[in-house]
């Protein structure tokens, strides 16, 4: 539902602006398995989340999205759903979930669910019935006959490779056919060319929206369709090779995925799903937010905002800071990647920023622990919507999970006890570090599902809460600052002041801020008067943990020296 922004008074203190709840919201991602374990079985759960809602409130988050909590055999830790209408028993019951919504509502925190539309679990009833060719379910998945080679041997139908490596096809004896799985073998792709499947997914979305969730995240949306095989005489064609060096036929990047990603039909099904959100939004006069994730080129990515033909989604998750900013990136790269999203995004739509999730090396490990505050400043103070993956507010680092304890199917698929570490997602899923107590305060169990990361004795919430200067304190100050008009509604301008120093300006009427971050490893001196109307002195609002500067100290606009990794939020003196 659209609300029109009405600016009544020019002075920022008195401005009365209506914007819908999600347009500048802060979304906090909880990976439920690793957040809080309430019953001592070593696995996080819903009652655990309920017990820490006050923490989310204190942090200043508006909404939390939960990685999947539905029934699952957990080969891919919940992204392989076997029953979309049931909560995974080890996480709790439907009553527990209803309690979560109720308690969250009391604190005005919104709950968002993560529903996986591309595939089910291989142990879902739908798949088992389809495997047995039960009439109604026969056509719910992508079944293909084997390719019989010159020696009469049974081979997969074509060369398609799964995102998790190796053939995207697995053989099912009961049908004497192969099924397609773009991800793990335990995640057979649904067949969206069967209208019944699309209808069922709409029912699932409706079911959870009716339960009171404020929105739903639909991941891997650009994998929903494969090419139409009827166009190719009834056979799915091979994908062409990318020619990238150092790769073999088991590697995902070996092929150019022109037939298995970003198909035109995706945008139509997205607008059909959107109608479900809109009908409930309209009825209740409360916007239910649709988020999608598509790791794809920028032009495809922004198509999810919608166009004149298709209504799009509220939040097409922008993974650019995850996928394109690396240890090697400098200030110019950061500016470029941010500008690109803002340039391609349709005018009047809302940007969003993400630096972490349950699949991505943590900021402290991907870059340096010293840059944690700088990246939190980026995410929280850039224009639009912000996402934080749990633990980034205290600068958690990747844990160490040895081969024998490795759980992630992506890592197990490497069959490589040495190099698995390069792809394993377990290190970013280790338990939240609440305190220096047993299992970092996550659980009373003797063994937790993944080991707690080393160093939790000093890196934990309790310690950071009781310290004056900590990532947590910086984060809280930023979430408060974020409520000001300059950040919620203000304009944006950015500069790479030199190769190492990225800075941006946010302003609303006469309230003006400069956020400046030295992402390099050496001392730098910059001149902020390169920004229009920045001069004289600025006051420090927030400084990174290792900065020598403190709140309300003044700095000179035309001569600002920054130590390596130093990041500041400065306010222009009026
Ligand atoms: C589902 O897939 C997993 C992982 O590949 C496998 O271990 C399991 O046996 C499969 N289940 C069925 C019912 O085929
Ligand atoms: C809908 O909700 C908005 C914001 O909560 C409120 O301002 C508006 O008056 C409501 N409209 C109707 C028709 O109830
Ligand atoms: C970011 C995200 O949602 N990643 C998930 C995408 O889907 C695969 C397959 O289900 C999961 O393994 C990822 O965790
Ligand atoms: Ca538990
Ligand atoms: Ca698919």
TrEMBL record:
Gene3D superfamilies according to UniProt: Glycosidases (3.20.20.80), Golgi alpha-mannosidase II (2.60.40.1180), Oligo-1,6-glucosidase, Domain 2 (3.90.400.10)
Catalytic activity: Hydrolysis of terminal, non-reducing (1->4)-linked alpha-D-glucose residues with release of alpha-D-glucose
GO biological process, one term: carbohydrate metabolic process
Domain (Glycosyl hydrolase family 13 catalytic) ranges: 29-429
Enzyme class, first EC level, given as a word: hydrolase
InterPro entries given in the database record: Alpha-amylase-like_C (IPR054174), GH (IPR017853), GH13_cat_dom (IPR006047), Glyco_hydro_b (IPR013780), O16G_dom_2 (IPR045857)
Source taxon at top rank: Eukaryota
MF terms (GO), sorted A to Z: alpha-1,4-glucosidase activity
Protein EC: 3.2.1.20
Listed name of the protein: alpha-glucosidase
Origin species: Parnassius mnemosyne (clouded apollo)
């Amino acid at each position: 539902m659209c609300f029109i922004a009405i600016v009544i008074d020019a002075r920022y203190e008195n401005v009365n602006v209506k914007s819908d709840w999600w347009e500048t919201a802060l979304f906090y991602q909880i990976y439920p398995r690793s957040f809080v374990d309430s019953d001592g079985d070593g696995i996080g759960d819903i009652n655990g989340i309920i017990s820490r809602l006050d923490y989310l409130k204190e942090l200043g988050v508006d909404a939390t999205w939960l990685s999947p909590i539905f029934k699952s055999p957990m080969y891919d830790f919940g992204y392989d759903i076997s029953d979309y209408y049931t909560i995974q028993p080890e996480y709790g019951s439907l009553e527990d979930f209803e309690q979560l919504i109720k308690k969250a509502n009391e604190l005005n925190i919104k709950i968002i669910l993560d529903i996986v539309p591309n595939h089910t679990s291989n142990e879902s009833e739908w798949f088992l019935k389809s495997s047995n060719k039960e009439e109604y379910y026969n056509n719910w998945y992508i079944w293909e006959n084997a390719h019989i080679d010159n020696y009469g041997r049974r081979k997969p139908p074509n060369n398609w490779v799964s995102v998790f490596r190796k053939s995207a096809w697995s053989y099912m004896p009961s049908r004497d056919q192969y099924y397609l799985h773009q991800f793990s073998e335990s995640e057979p792709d649904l067949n969206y060319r069967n209208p019944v499947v699309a209808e069922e997914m709409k029912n699932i979305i409706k079911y959870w929206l009716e339960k009171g969730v404020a929105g739903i995240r639909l991941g891997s949306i650009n994998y929903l369709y494969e090419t139409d095989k009827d166009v190719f005489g009834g056979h799915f064609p091979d994908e062409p090779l990318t020619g990238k060096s150092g790769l073999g036929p088991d590697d995902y990047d070996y092929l150019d995925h022109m037939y298995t990603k970003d198909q035109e039909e995706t945008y139509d099904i997205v607008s059909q799903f959107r109608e479900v959100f809109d009908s409930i939004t309209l009825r209740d006069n409360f916007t239910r937010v649709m988020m999608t994730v598509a790791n794809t080129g920028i032009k495809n990515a922004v198509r999810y905002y919608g166009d004149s033909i298709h209504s799009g989604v509220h939040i097409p998750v922008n993974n650019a800071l995850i996928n394109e900013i690396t240890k090697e990136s400098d200030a110019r790269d950061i500016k470029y990647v941010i500008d690109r999203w803002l340039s391609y995004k349709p005018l009047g739509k809302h940007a969003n920023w993400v630096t972490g999730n349950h699949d991505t090396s943590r900021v402290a490990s991907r870059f340096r622990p010293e840059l944690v505050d700088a990246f939190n400043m980026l995410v929280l103070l850039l224009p639009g919507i912000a996402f934080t993956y749990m633990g980034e507010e205290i600068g958690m680092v990747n844990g160490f999970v040895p081969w024998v304890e490795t759980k992630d199917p992506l890592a197990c698929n490497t069959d490589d006890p040495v190099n698995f570490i390069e792809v394993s997602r377990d290190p970013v899923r280790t338990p939240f570090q609440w305190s220096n107590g047993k299992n970092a305060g996550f659980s009373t169990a003797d063994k937790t599902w993944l080991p707690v990361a080393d160093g939790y004795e000093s890196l934990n919430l309790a310690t950071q809460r009781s310290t004056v200067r900590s990532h947590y304190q910086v984060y809280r100050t930023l979430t408060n600052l974020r409520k000001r008009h300059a950040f919620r509604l203000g304009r944006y301008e950015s500069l790479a002041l030199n190769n190492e120093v990225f800075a941006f300006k946010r302003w609303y009427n006469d309230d003006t801020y400069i956020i400046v971050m030295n992402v390099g490893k050496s001392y730098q001196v910059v001149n902020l008067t390169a920004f229009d109307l920045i001069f004289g002195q600025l006051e420090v609002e927030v400084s990174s943990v290792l900065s020598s500067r403190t709140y309300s100290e003044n700095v000179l606009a035309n001569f600002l020296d920054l130590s390596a990794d130093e990041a500041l939020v400065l306010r222009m003196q009026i």
